[in-house]
Batch of 4 targets.
Target 1
Amino acid sequence: MISRVRPELLIVGAAVLWGTTGTAQDLGDVGASPVAVGTIRILLGGLLLALIAGRSGRPTGPWAAYVVGAVTVAGYQASFFAAVDRAGVALGTLVAIGSGPVFTGLVALLASGERPARRWYAATGLAVIGCGLLLAPGGDRALDAAGLGLALGAGLAYAVYTVAAKTVLDRGVPGPTVMAVLFLGGAVLLLPTLLVVDTDGLVSGRGVAMELWLGVATVAFSYLLFAAGLRRLRASTVAPLSLTEPLTAAALGVVVLGERPGGTAALGAALLLSGLVVISTERATAVVPEP
């Protein structure tokens, strides 16, 4: 069935599902800690991916990359959901996703000596200016500095996760297997936090509905769509299509949640998105699914 769908539509569909993550958290807010929400999300998604990957093959080394990847998957969940909670869905997602390619260039340079492409420098400049403008006052909701820091932390976690995942994928390990190990590993690391953070409401009807959407739609199903599309497209084609994620998040934040960032903040977000467009249209861009 999926094989009959145009690959471009599969990538866009996956990105749209990723873009609903912050809005789903906000609409399904039952008072639980963002860390608890992120933990249940990757646990459920990881279990489903493990079932899907059951016949794909067993994981093989390098094992250090799996450990680093699992740690950063856990860090991304904690940082991203907290950032969205404090900074808003539209801006929180744009900062987290927009800063990811910038951090990825730095991490790849430090980890393997891979020099960034020329466009990376332009994208970095746009991202830095954009983040500076986001700190300026304006709008009916002042951007929380801690929220911005958490969003940048999510972008850094995504960068390290990307490099770690690519290290394993380059050894020929099947994609579903890699993702299942990283997501389940991240969930195991976060599970102890459920003993100390607020989990109220997660077992309510509203909470269960939110977690089912986050785990099934934004992790397991979206990855299936993404993998099916990626097999039939070049990375240079996939990367721009993935921009649907922050666009979806921003649109839902404004239309559904009524978020109204000020003019300066909107300009900063636009510059961040512009930087993401610049780096994503680089031919050598490699795309790894958002954790």
Target 2
Amino acid sequence: MIDYTLHILDNGLTLICHREPETPLVTVNILYGVGSRDEDPTLTGFAHLFEHLMFGGTKAVPDYDSAVSMLGGEANAVTNTDYTNYYLTVPARHIEAALQLEADRMRGLNLSTETLSVQQRVVTEEYNQRYMNQPYGDVWMLLRPLCYKVHPYRWCTIGADIRHVQRASIEDVQLFFERHYHPSNAIISIAGNIDPIEAARLVEHHFGTIKDGGAPCRAKHIDTEPDKTESQQMTVERNVPTDALYRAYLMCDRHADAFAACDLISDILSNGDSSRLKQRLIRKERLFTDIDASILGCLDRGLFILSGHPSDGVSMETAEKAIDHELQQLTADGVTEGEIDKVINKFEATFHMSHYRVADRAHELCLCQWLGDIARINTEPQYYRQVTEDRIQATAQKLFTPSNANTLHYLAK
């Protein structure tokens, strides 16, 4: 059981505290409710760009990384489609200095033509290395617009067009910061060896005077991706070692009742050597050298992904038919109670292991609060235990319809 306290400051900042006296460390985690889904279609990649700009320093602290090193700490960040998360872990005695650093960044960055130009080059280089010059690197740049036609999930966090970042002006980035990086659009959690009352006092002192920029930007309307009426397919050739097959199905959003069922279906299909796809398509029929099923657990409608590399000599048509056969068997015959118990037990073990580090707890507390139910930090497995064989089958029948299939054939030249 993870204990926590919850408090909202007058300026809208949400504060969560979790005390763990057994560690000498403390983690400050700040989640900002801004991801690539919140970008203007003509100015994409900005959420990720700001992940870099936030480490560029402020007028008070020109070199953020050096300041963190002086505290004996470590800091990092991650951007995804739905939010941007920053964390800073330091020895507990340096908690106030850590909070000063984060409050200073929330107040404003040292945005200049020079600092912006540096990070534009960094992001461009990342784009070239990770997406253009890496085997299978552009898969998601192809698959997302194949699956999404109206929702901002149709572009990657790096952006729909790298030129959006390259051409960004100081005015563009300043406006983006003011719109998204303010107290009521942020959740801060402090986890580690610190008294919650003292933590609240320090946060109130350092963050309480920051003016809010208005209501959380998440309140704005974003078009829901409609159900698919016909399947989509794309074929590309690239300099890669072997062919790859990707199949994506539009699924429910993170809050839907069917979300846990989709997650468990992916585990039944490919989690472990005894899973259905690995037993039949790799071990028995030897049609694939590897195959995997996974989900994108997005705030809005996500994707159920099947991906794999067909064995030498196996055509894409044969590989697709084999996958279709397995999905048809699942939708027609359902699953057994034993299969569900096995994957739920694995989920629970992974769930509890994911809370082992204090830094992980700090992030999960922010995430659960952002999703609207902080209690899920302790109760998430209960939702999975409620999934029945009938729910699995009904979810699969709705999910794996031919018109909902989006397929990418990624062929080796």
Target 3
Amino acid sequence: MWRRQLPAWSPLTVRALAEGAAASSKAGRHVASLDAHLRAEYGASLVQLTESGTVALALAMLAGAPEASRPKVAMPAWACYDLMTAADIADAEVILYDLDPVTLAPASGSFAEALGLRPTSVVVAHWFGLPVLLAPMLAAARKAGVTFIEDAAQGVGGSVAGRPLGSLGDFGILSFGRGKGRAGGRGGAVLANNANAVARLQRVAHRIAPTDTGKRGLLALAAQWALGRPWAYAAPSSIRSLRIGETIYHPPSPIREIPEWAAAVVNALWLRSAREGAARRVAAAHWAHVLSRNTSMSAFAESAGCVAGWLRYPVLMNDSTALLNADARRLGVMPGYGKLLADLPLTPGRLANDGPWPGASELASRLRTLPTHSLLRAGDFAAIGQLLGRNERRRS
């Protein structure tokens, strides 16, 4: 087909690219401005900007461990593979816990068992911007003396009781990578949300190296802008060897600061990203209405007092083989993470526990996501609705 819809999209403009191109190679006013934006929005006591959200997560893992000891981190068994890459960067021993496939939140019994294995920190993520009610888990972690890392890399625009996702844990993790709610081409942040977290983050600050001052990443971002429309995305996404749209397990990378050019891009898109969040919520409301009578799949609902960012709209299929065909991918309907973290090619000694993790296994086989971004047009909504309807009729 000449047109192919993107599974996820972040707003990007020529002006933002120009701001990045004009930025100095040394950290300066753009990094300081982004720091100020984040402090104001999240109320963070300290912000550490990094080269990626994965690096930010690794830094939080290191900060959560006692000085001169190896991190031991509990994290969900089903997750973006970058969580395991972060553990590789920090050389952390990993404890996996199960997820509830109905809510995407940690399964309470498995989460308690993970805390019983005495991790130094625990990671809880808001998948696709759907908020997890953290209060009971925060209380359990603090009772166990475990540092709580709130992964809000997909959480832009989401909140719990009026507080933005990323501001609730000891550490909050943000990402400005491709396809996130705020994009800069590169970049991430660790938010230290209390005095103890500030002290811990300052203790590991010496591990952060200066950024690679080149702007190769800006060229890649420009290519993303050029191809970031359905009519242009069709060509590269049809080349299977490029693995566009797939989740890939990346090798570990150095812990570095954010490039000045990436901070400039994020700043230039700050207000545009907020408007994009509103468009995603409108699209999510549409999908909720479409699926309200569809018995072949289940949607995920916001809890009371929560607002979801809906980076993508997740659904859980009754049939694990459904919506995996070329028509679904052409319309931006994609599977979630198809493997458990335990199934990745891990370094020996990385995992501290064994499964099974039945909820995580269900998510790996049955979760799909619908696009929510503002590039969707009436014809896209109609075509995806017809696809979902055909799946319903086949099931019946």
Target 4
Amino acid sequence: MEVLVIMKTTVDIFSGFLGSGKTMLIRKLLSEKVYGKNTVIIENEFGEVGIDGEVLRESNIEIKEINAGCICCQVSGSFGDAVLEVINKYNPDNIIIEPSGVAKLSEILKILSSIKFEHKLTIRNIFTLIDIRNYNMYLRNFREFYLNQIKEANKIILSRTQFVSEENIKEVVNSLKKYNSKAEIIFKPWDEIKGSTFIKENESENAVETIRDIEEISIIKNKGIKMFKKEANHTAKEVFESYPIELIKGTSTDEMQKKFQFISNSSKFGKIVRAKGIIKGNDGLYYQFDYVPNEFKARKITWSNKNVVSIIGSELNKKELINLFS
């Protein structure tokens, strides 16, 4: 009697706050051929303008984009349907899922753990990427979303460690262990690590729970009462906003960088935590750029002719932003 073996699709999730380096790490893994040809990327961006999807298309791997908002709060049903559609249509060996930087990882795992996926996929890696230079700022200002991503990961990867001291790395690693003692933490500069190292099975004896109800315990010492305080359950739309600005004229990357330096030194534009876009340079060529606090990077491209800036943050002053970029 023959036994029917059902092959499940292997899923790797690349979570991480805005600008943590998710797309950059995925590109590294693809360029090093860590994934086979039968791989699909499901890529979600927070906002109305899709930039990262076009960046990933350079790999010639199929992409399913969802740009209606955050996976977990705006299009959770569509996200589940998209994963199911990909599995049924392409029967891939691997699926790479890159959620929005403001998606709650617990909500994504809840969807993927539903019964309709029981015999269709297995989750191998739950990555959360951390931009070490902005760790304390994001933890302080966006704690609810940031901790959700940290606590639900089974692998935490630090980005941009080549720009900080060993003491800084040690401080952040120790802090992360307080919030998630079971996750493997990778902190070496990525150039020193082979892509295959990132996706190998976690060798830790204690695997992180797939779904965890995130609670904080506070103790009132004077009465000896232990109180369980559930974290606020905000959606991304309640905290963050995305604002695309279509550019009419060309501009140089140097000029664009100066604009973001001006933004970082001023409070009148709101709390901007991420920006990305494609601009037409004064030389007639096109450039793709990324901005996070303390960093602006741009590169020449040939695969798009957009001229747009997408700003993500909270309490955005749209009038001042338009005046700056128009």
